[in-house]
Amino acid sequence: MDTAPFPENEKLILDLSNSMLTHLTTTPFSCSGRVPIPASQPVQLRFKGCGESLLVPLSVESEEQQRLFEALLNSMVPASFGRGTEEVFDEKYRRALKLDVADFLTSFCPYKAGIVDVVRRMLVPGDGKGEARTIRAGLYKLNVNSGPGGMFKAHVDTPRSEEQVASLVVCLPVAHEGGQLAVRHAGRELLYDWSQSHGVSSKEEDEEMAEQSSTSSPSAIYWAAFYSDCTHEVLPVTSGHRVTLTYNLYARTRFQPNTTQQPSIQPPPKQPSQLDGTQLLFSRDLASALANERFLPKGHVLAISLTHAYAHTSKHLDLIPARLKGGDLYLYAACAALGLRTFFRPVIECDPDDGEGMHRPFKVVGTKFEHMNTPHVLNKRFPEDAVAVAWPGTVLDKCKVTWLAPVSRGSKWEAAFGYAVVSFTFYAPGVGCLGVC
């Protein structure tokens, strides 16, 4: 850490790091809610090979609806999951049935139900510069986990676009036990239990949330949205059928949906649709440090390893604020409010084998996002040589950078499709490029 000759710089850096980490570990990474279903307006499902509509809530007294539900199950196929660039079937890892979006229709609309608007306010607020961010919800799958044994072990969703920011799971009111959805991020966990209509419980749950989550209705849809890089899993279903609609949520800047019904949500929204970076604790702490004439008087590059990972599915991707998630967006808003020059760069980790069992690990801060899953990279005996071409950057140990948090391990050099670990750098006044930005 280059803070000489003023020892108090170390304390200021530590205070900033603590302020930043406190902020990053308290911002939301998921939200949830409940949408009542009027008796006169059941959700309709139509699927390939059947000319009739299945109605939910599913009536246990209707032989006709039970017959249609069995027909739905018979029309479905085992669900696969992504492993690298391949689709894999393995019931030890995922046991579920699915229909692709081309094979079914539903009358349920997350826009009309008010869900998209809630998710936008909770997870995709504006960056504080006056430009609102909105969401496009794309229906993806109809899934059924049946008991006993239906489950999906811990995983991260495969990104379908670099614009994908979150995933939405909508649980239809079909009787089942078990099948809780666990969503985890940065050591925190939320557990959504829709079998008993408990709503949400977590390690962080307060009395107000507990009171809200105890309310239930057998004729309601429960849903949860979470950033798509969050680890999540479906715990085993012990009985019945857990029926869900899944959506991919994409960040947009010019799409404004209309909503007619406002669902109840857990937890209540605590942030506005536009961030005010000047009111954030980290912004005030950073402003105080920068105002100290003894804080990095010659200028410096300060860097943060963001808590969320970001999809890079194209050859070139410039990470823009419209794709930032959770606490990462708040950090950007705080720096932008102070007029600081900011840059987003990938962090890549290389641990190549030199052929004699010797490893020369190093990290690189990339100058831009690049697609590297190509033969001329993968076939290199010394992949760092290819990295220097395919992912131009600067070796981290040689950068004059002060990190405000422990440096992330970074993305493996061979991981070209999926998520990149990202560094967020900004200039303290008076500093030049220093070769990293």
Automatic annotation (TrEMBL):
Domain Prolyl 4-hydroxylase alpha subunit intervals: 51-250
Cofactor: L-ascorbate
Keywords, sorted A to Z: Dioxygenase, Oxidoreductase
A Pfam short name: 2OG-FeII_Oxy_3
One GO molecular-function entry: iron ion binding
Alphabetized InterPro entries for the sequence: Pro_4_hyd_alph (IPR006620), Pro_4_hyd_alph_FE2OG_OXY (IPR044862)
Name listed for the protein in its UniProt record: Prolyl 4-hydroxylase alpha subunit domain-containing protein
Organism: Neohortaea acidophila
